[in-house]
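Input structure tokens:
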């Protein structure tokens, strides 16, 4: 009923006089009653409307003028949902493209590695059965073989020097214990006090000189170990890289020779150009590593001569002074090579290391 009255009031014409005043209409009483009826809405319903409020997700945007059809009404919730769906789909597409790019890159890497491994294995088998040719640098190969033989011999020297150190250490400990025993017996045997005392002093002196000699031998062993297991090993690692580069170079060289022997059409020429580029890359790598090996072998030989000259002189002087009983010369030998002896018990772990 209220809607019909308001609809009637909204469509009612209001006449205007010539002086601009509105005329009195018979329907004024009806409008007043309608207004009162509208304001007399239930207060509880009004509060409920105010509290709940409009649903913004269902707010409509009207397209067109007043009185337009419902076809121009676009719910804002559909616009918001469309924008959110568009942003989420864009991020998912970007993530998929990134993942696809990483997968393609890994696939290409595995493909190149597999092809390179196949070619190198084929070249290795061909060389082993005498079917394929290999690049040989006779002078460099001879130097490499000399180095490997020298390393084997120096490893044997190192093994024997360590064995000598262990045996001599046990002998020094035995002399130390024997000297303590003689000294104790000299106190408990008055009739043999002088004899036990002489032997105790002799064993203690031998023990002291033995510890000095052990310091020289330990320094000798440490220097040989550094030369063999670090300096020579580093050069041999470079040689290993050089040999791998040589194998790859020969593999791509053989591949290029095989392609050059086939009929040359457009596809074959493209394959030959690609093989030529790979061959040139492997050749540059091979020549660079060959130069590195040559330089390292030269420096290694100079360093080996310098180190071994010093260590062999130390070993000779220390051994000679010890077995000659020349304590002063033995100590001078250690001072000459700047060797400092560890105090007794330095090899034992501290109480912190035992925790």
């Amino acid at each position: 009923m209220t809607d019909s009255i308001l609809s009637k009031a909204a469509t009612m014409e209001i006449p205007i006089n010539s002086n601009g005043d509105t005329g009195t209409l018979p329907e004024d009483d009806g409008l007043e009653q309608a207004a009162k009826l509208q304001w007399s809405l239930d207060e509880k319903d009004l509060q409920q409307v105010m509290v709940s409020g409009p649903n913004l997700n269902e707010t409509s945007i009207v397209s067109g003028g007043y009185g337009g059809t419902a076809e121009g009404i676009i719910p804002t919730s559909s616009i918001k949902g469309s924008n959110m769906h568009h942003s989420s789909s864009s991020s998912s597409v970007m993530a998929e493209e990134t993942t696809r790019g990483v997968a393609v890159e890994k696939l290409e890497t595995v493909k190149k590695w597999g092809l390179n491994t196949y070619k190198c294995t084929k070249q290795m088998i061909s060389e082993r059965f005498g079917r394929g040719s290999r690049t040989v640098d006779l002078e460099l190969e001879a130097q490499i073989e000399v180095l490997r033989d020298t390393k084997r011999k120096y490893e044997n020297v190192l093994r024997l020097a360590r064995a000598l150190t262990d045996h001599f250490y046990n002998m020094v400990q035995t002399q130390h214990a024997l000297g303590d025993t003689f000294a104790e017996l000299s106190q408990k045997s008055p009739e043999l006090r002088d004899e036990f005392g002489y032997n105790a002093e002799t064993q203690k002196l031998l023990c002291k000189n033995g510890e000095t000699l052990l310091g020289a031998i330990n320094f000798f062993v440490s220097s040989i170990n550094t030369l063999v297991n670090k300096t020579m090993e580093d050069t041999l690692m470079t040689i290993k890289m050089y040999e791998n580069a040589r194998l790859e170079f020969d593999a791509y060289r053989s591949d290029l020779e095989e392609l050059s022997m086939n009929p040359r059409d457009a596809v074959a020429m493209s394959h030959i150009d690609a093989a030529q580029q790979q061959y040139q890359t492997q050749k540059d790598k091979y020549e660079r590593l060959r130069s590195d090996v040559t330089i390292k072998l030269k420096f290694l030989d100079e360093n080996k001569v310098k180190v071994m000259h010093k260590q062999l002189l130390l070993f000779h002087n220390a051994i000679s002074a010890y077995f000659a009983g020349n304590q002063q010369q033995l100590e001078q030998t250690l001072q000459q090579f700047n060797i400092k002896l560890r105090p007794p018990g330095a090899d034992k772990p501290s109480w912190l290391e035992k925790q």
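Strands lie at 60-62, 73-75. Residues 1-28, 39-44, 46-80, 349-355 have pLDDT under 50 and may be disordered.
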